[in-house]
Amino acid sequence: MKQCRSLAGHGHEVALVVADGLGDACRDGIRIVDVGRPAGRRERMLHSTRRVVRAALALGADVYQLHDPELIPLGLRLALAGHRVVFDAHEDVPSQLLDKPYLMPRSARLLSRAYARFERAALRRLDGVLAATPLIRNRLADYNPLSVDVNNYPRAEEFDAAPSTTEARTSFCYVGSISAIRGVRELVEACALLRTPARLALAGSFAEAELEAEVSRQHGWGRVDALGHLDRGGVAEVMARAFAGLVTLLPTASYREALPVKMFEYMAAGIPVIASNFPLWRDIVEGSRCGLCVDPCDPAAIAAAIDHLATHPRLAHEMGANGRRAVMERYNWENEADKLIAFYADLLAARPHRNRIAGTRGLATPSIRSID
After folding, report:
1. 334 with 157: CB under 8 angstroms?
2. pLDDT(276) > 90
């Protein structure tokens, strides 16, 4: 919703088409149009997309922004009808397909190449591309010259800085979706290796019940406080009590080139980061002197980093302050919003418009995300 709010605040009339079953609404000056949540994958593929098409066309918008790859055919249809269309690329899909555990390697390679060809042909027919990271922008700029990265950095004011104290705290946190590929097994194993009495505040929902049952049997689970899903206020409270925040995602093609918003939220909260040692992440964390980078596949290395910050509270406080400063100066949504507004100014300058922008969100998940 950050994109929606920023565009609405700049004078655009913004509508958001969703398929979450929560009904139509108006929030922060944004009109939300709900076409109903599909009962399953089959209905989503056969019927929901048609309902989204009808709702989008009924809006009569000057620009349509799409968020999910499955909606690119809708974008092509809208473009053929003379509408301006923007695709918001959140992931490097060809790389992601290579990491899918349910695909055989040969099938994954074939699907990756096929999607890349489709993506190249489709994006050349659209009016512009927004990318979630500079790396995705650089790849897609070859297909569409109006390509800009708008990074999903946090609003710094959503998080209070850590208290001005060097007093040691006894909890560290992980906040976000919990899955094997996000390193939960290694994180819980690291808890069993800690030499300090530190405890893990685990905030989020498990992607699979079987995985939750598995890790809860690990020896390190005795050091875990499982908090479940928390609202924004609850997340801020967890971070305010922690001496570090962890984002030790495993080395997949999609994660190595991603910019995880939780890393920047830890920084905004004024706590040091313990992050995977991917080159992109290392540049940010070590460049800002706001945390430590470790091998996410090595529980002993994760435990050593946690113990180091737990026993050096002054260092942890300094790193947290550095991270907060980096967010205030560079890694914040306000800077990205300026890029978004400039992108739409360039897009709409070609011919007269009424500042009506519609966004269509993916059909797979019920939560509302930023779109325009």
Report:
1. no
2. yes
